[in-house]
Amino acid sequence: MEIVxxxxxxxxxxxxxxxxxxxxxxxxxxxxxxxxxxxxxADTLEGNALIKARWVKERYGFDCFADDTxxxxxxxxxxxGVHTARYAFPDxxxxxxxxxxxxxxxxxxxxxxxxxxxxxxxxxxxDETLFEGIVDGRIAPEERGTEGFGYxxxxxxxxxxxxxxxxxxxxxxxxxxxxxAVKRLAEYLRQH
Length: 192
Prior knowledge:
By secondary structure, this protein is of the alpha/beta class.
């Protein structure tokens, strides 16, 4: 089955391809000639994922899925949430600055509980379906590990005592929020 994943993020693309395996041919936005700056203007993860998937379906005609992921930190009232990728600067992605800002805001906080939540929107024909994956955990007091990307060096999934960056890409892919959402997507696609 051929389907578009509405991203040009190489990390996400390789992670999704590894999770879905050879049953699916996953095309990126670049693969279909889409170089649009797709707006992410919704105030929810679900809304942003739907905007991206609908954009590809309406303008390029491909069945498509898109994701949006948020890091939701209890002590920060659920922030950064929908602004996770642009937490430090609203006009650009800066993973290093995002992590520094998060750690600074949690300095001295006893409650460091957090969760990563991914929502995938699938637009297939005229049908729209949402899938969610959640990993509960906590924010480490400092960065640890060298694998992964984004907040991986500071997010410890519950019960492991290691950050995603310490676990390594293969282990993270098997249990991540995105992996959980993608597994639900894959089950749905195989059944339909």
